[in-house]
Each structure stands twice: as structure tokens, then as C-alpha cells.
Amino acid sequence: MSDDPTIFEQIVAGDIPARIVYETDTVAAFLDANPLAPGHTLVVPKEPHERLEDIPDDEAAAVWAAVQELVPQIAAAVDADATTVGVNDGEAAGQEVPHAHVHIVPRFEGDGGGP
Ligand code: 5GP
């Protein structure tokens, strides 16, 4: 693993601008720069754990608590009909940023596909 800070660490540090929608001591969530749908949000542990299995239990619980809190809030904000929650865990699954993150993608009747 590289020692360079990940894009998401730089966002958490405030070095790269992003629209932060949720923040605690251990977790942050911000809008995806290339959204699959309005309101597409990424939830990350602030520590740069690369893979799901690397996240300590307490931080993983905090990430999931954020997801549970954010899903209905985001759906209401963009008037979504449903939500897809997903993780690309590993390069072959499409993980581009080596800092574990959960996608929250609002879904709309007839939108024809997910992440
Ligand atoms: P992955 O393919 O790793 O699961 O998803 C990475 C996500 O991060 C992509 O949806 C991409 O649009 C998003 N992303 C990449 N760089 C940035 C950035 O600098 N800012 C924000 N807000 N999102 C980013």
C-alpha cells in the first residue's frame, strides 16, 4: 500500500473540496464527484483502511450506523423511490480508490440499473 494519502483522506482533511453531508470522529460522508444518480454519496471510515476486512469492528459499526442514518435522509432529499447500497471491495470488483467506502445510490422507478 502506498504511503501517499488517498483522495478520501485528503477530502477528510479538507485538502480536496467535497460536499460533506455527515461527519463524526471516525466517519465522513460526501457527495460522489461523478454521481450515478442525484444524491449519490460515499461513506468512509476516516482512517484509510483499503479493504472491508481491514476496518476494525468499532469503525465498521460506525460506518454502517452512518449508512442506516443517511439512506432515508438522502432518499427524502432527492425524492428517491429506493436506494442501492454497495461496496466495490477490491480492484477486480471495480474499486478505484484504495480507501474502503460505501456507495449510497438513490434509485428511481424505471431508472434501469444500479452500480
Ligand atoms: P469505487 O469505484 O472505488 O468503488 O468508487 C470510487 C468513487 O469515488 C467513484 O464513484 C468516483 O466518482 C468517486 N471519486 C473519485 N475521486 C473523487 C473525488 O475527488 N471526490 C469525490 N467526491 N468523489 C470522487
Automatic annotation (TrEMBL):
Any single biological process term in GO: nucleotide metabolic process
Active site: 101
A GO term for molecular function: catalytic activity
Domain HIT span(s) in chain numbering: 7-114
Position of sequence motif Histidine triad motif: 99-103
Protein name: HIT family protein
Species the sequence originates in: Halobellus salinus
